[in-house]
Amino acid sequence: MRFENQVVVITGAAGGVGRTLVTLFAKEGAQMMLADMNEAGLQEAASEAQNYGSNVAYLAGNLREKDYCEQLITTAAETFGGVDILLNNAGIIPRGTIEETTDEMWFTAMDVNLNAVFFLCRASVPHMKRRGGGAIVNTSSVWGTYPGPGHVAYCTSKGAVAALTKNLGRDCAPMQIRVNAVCPHEINTPMIRSGFERRGLDPDKAIDELNKTVPLGRIAEPEDIADAIAFLASDEARYIAGETVEVTGAKPVSG
Ligand SMILES: NC(=O)c1ccc[n+]([C@@H]2O[C@H](COP(=O)([O-])OP(=O)(O)OC[C@H]3O[C@@H](n4cnc5c(N)ncnc54)[C@H](O)[C@@H]3O)[C@@H](O)[C@H]2O)c1
């Protein structure tokens, strides 16, 4: 029970990795404030957490809105008495080269993938200070640190999340707040499957092909990433701060 009675805020809690995080942290005793714009998915995630005896609440909303980001942290602190861990897991992947990327695609990527992370971290730090410390795990991407082709808005936003993480990692360490990020390669979630569907491909067949490109023999399952996030959030990672941890099955970025 690594997270017994700790208050954990999870964004993107209705998504592929998010649902897995909810189950993992529920099994390990966390109290959770779940966030997503998919209210039905949030309800399902919350009731699953309750099945494990977790004390859980949720607030549906759009991470593009600064007020919602701040409200989320305030509500978590009011509901559970504080905030110990923030998992900035939500993200979107607009696909396109610079000529294909509209203003809307660009601003949405920056708002959801980067600005929300900034607003949520900024709102959480005072609560963590009050508790004598805390942990933040952001989700960047190897496509942020080594940009892949044809995803200019996504790669730029995720690269900025990596830089933000390293900066906060240094600035927040004296407050005993550890800030780290995971940088996954491909994960078998709706994010990647919907991309294949949009291109008219069968997601199962496409993932079989993708598995062959990974030295460990398969792309990540959500559990592979959730376990890395939980490790970074836990006391087992007590001396790790300001790091961006690649979780790739040894697959390099190419193309
Ligand atoms: N799937 C991959 O291959 C992959 C690879 C590298 C990094 N990542 C990152 O991992 C994280 C989790 O991704 P996933 O694969 O579970 O994706 P997902 O699409 O399954 O889940 C993302 C969740 O974020 C929520 N969300 C999106 N925009 C929102 C908004 N404006 N307001 C509130 N909620 C919003 C969605 O409703 C969804 O439930 C993301 O940050 C993603 O960029 C994913």
Class from helix and strand fractions: alpha/beta
Order the strands across the largest sheet as they lie in space: 3-2-1-4-5-6-7
Topology order in helix (H) and strand (E) letters: EHEHEHEHEHHEHHHE
CATH class: Alpha Beta
CATH architecture: 3-Layer(aba) Sandwich
- The CATH topology corresponds to Rossmann fold
Tell the overall outline. globular
Taking all residues together, what is the mean pLDDT? 97
Q: What's the β-strand tally?
A: 7
Largest sheet: 7 strands, parallel
Percentage of helical residues?
A: 40-55%
Number of domains: 1
Q: Could you tell me the radius of gyration in angstroms?
A: 17 Å
Number of helices: 9
Strand content: 5-15%
Determine the N-to-C terminus distance: 42 Å
Given as residue ranges, the uncertain stretches (5+ residues, pLDDT < 50) are: none
The CATH superfamily is known as NAD(P)-binding Rossmann-like Domain
What can you see in these coordinates?
The protein is of the alpha/beta class and 255 residues long. Helix content is 48%, strand content 15%. A seven-stranded parallel beta sheet has the order 3-2-1-4-5-6-7, with helices on both faces. Helix 1 links the parallel strand 1 (7-11) and strand 2 (31-36). Helix 1 (16-27) runs parallel beside helix 2, helix 1 crosses helix 9 (222-233) and helix 7 packs across helix 8 (203-211). The chain binds nicotinamide-adenine-dinucleotide (NAD). Nicotinamide-adenine-dinucleotide binds at residues 12, 14-18, 36-38, 41, 62-64, 89-93, 112, 139, 141, 184, 186-187, 189-192.
